[in-house]
Amino acid sequence: MTLLADLPADWREATLVGRLATAAGPTPIVISRGRVRDVSRAAPTVSALLNNWDGTVPEGEDLGPLDQLPLTPAFSGAATSPRLLAPVDLQCIKACGVTFAVSAVERVIEERARGDYAKAQSIRDALGERVGADIRSVKPGSETAVRLKEALIADGLWSQYLEVAIGPDAEVFTKSPVLSSVGWGDWIGVRKESQWNNPEPEIVLACDAKGRTLGATLGNDVNLRDIEGRSALLLGKAKDNNASCAIGPFIRMFDAGFGIDDIRKAVVSLTVAGNDGYQLEGRSSMSLISRDPLDLVQQTMSQHQYPDGFALFLGTMFAPTDDRDVPGRGFTHKLDDLVRVSSPSLGTLENKLTTSDRAPPWSFGIGHLMGNLASRGLLAQRSN
Fold first, then answer.
1. Using CB atoms within 10 A of its CB, is residue 232 exposed (0-12), middle (13-18) or buried (19+)?
2. In which band, very low, low, confident or very high, does the pLDDT at 319 lie, cut at 50, 70 and 90?
3. CB 4, CB 68: distance < 8 Å
4. Of 203, 283, 287, 335, whose CB has the highest number of CB atoms within 10 Å?
5. How does residue 44 score in pLDDT terms, banded at 50, 70 and 90?
6. In which element (H, E) is residue 272 found?
């Protein structure tokens, strides 16, 4: 199992940005025309690379063809070097929730079930058709949305999740601390006490300090449905845990052949393969998103600054409801599930599931990075 099979279909024509864990330390790379270039002397962090991005690949050491770089998944147990890291470093990791009608309905179900998966199906049957059909027909923040809100309040069906689904303001939250995301081939984690959880396959936009949307990658916004369902105030506990945020394999930079319109019409696929023989497949079409990706970027930037840039999860329409093995329980993860998030132009983000307490601990923070870059002589006279 190698990275080659998980690259974008046209990777030789794409400009890709990533990070390698090398013997020296975390190293930004740019892949152009199929060749890997170490650009750490020009841009010691991906944040600096993107903040100064003008479409030109910086000078750097040629590491050879990408298809000859020996990259294997960390979860395979092979202690190879170099190893692929998440393609972001100093950027804030932000995420948008409830941006698709289907996911809005599922969040309402979680809320009404108070995190109890056993109650989910009966609530889904009673609620899904009425609310789901109406939500899909309105634009968030429009007069039609206001009228729908009034009708749902009158019916006793209103929810805080519907507020962000059809109201004027999107849900934007901080998913993970800086440098805590895992990359392609790494372990992802759920809290060991969680009994109802799922992957959330998403497209992630890469934005610089000025709010320029420069490229995109794939993400898995691992979600604990039982914990968030008990209370929306537990969102941090449901979303931000060790190894709960995966991003990769690379940021595909926007250029003449790939841009934001490709994101608007992208299809994101998900597969989960369990050791128990279970197979889950799903698809999420970006054409069905309720809010335009660039509107979500603007709402993230609203009265806020991100001097190191930010990565923005755009949300998902995928919320698995099919029973895995217990009738009425729906889907939940099991240890060693192999999770693959794919889109032809972005490749495949592949991870294997464990619990957050068993996943490799996050031990390399901002201070460690600054010390490493200083020891390599990469911080002299730099302001980003």
1. middle
2. confident
3. no
4. 203
5. very high
6. strand 267-273
How many angstroms separate the first and last alpha carbons of the chain? 36
Strand pairing of 245-253 and 279-285? unpaired
State if pTM tops 0.85: yes
Distance CA 201, CA 248 (A): 11
Q: Which two tokens stand for residue 136?
A: 């899909």
Task: Give me the sign of the Cα torsion angle 321, 325, 329, 331.
Answer: negative
Encoding tokens for residue 107? 């969040």
Contact (CB, 8 A) for 150 and 132: no
CA distance 157 to 168: 19
Residue 50's pLDDT band (boundaries 50, 70, 90)? very high
Contact in structure between 97 and 164 (CB atoms under 8 Å) = yes
More confident residue, 220 or 149: 220
Half-sphere exposure of 220 (CA within 13 A, CB side): 36
CA angle 229, 235, 239 (to 5 degrees): 105
For 216-248, the DSSP string reads: EEEEEE-EEHHHHHH-GGGHHHHH-STT-EEEE
Closest C-alpha to 200, from 183, 225, 178, 181:
225
What are the helix (H) ranges across 155-210?
Answer: 160-166
Helix axes 101-113, 120-135, angle to 10 degrees: 150
Q: How far apart are CA 306 and CA 96, in angstroms?
A: 16
Report the candidate in 319, 336, 252 with the shortest Cα–Cα distance to residue 283.
319
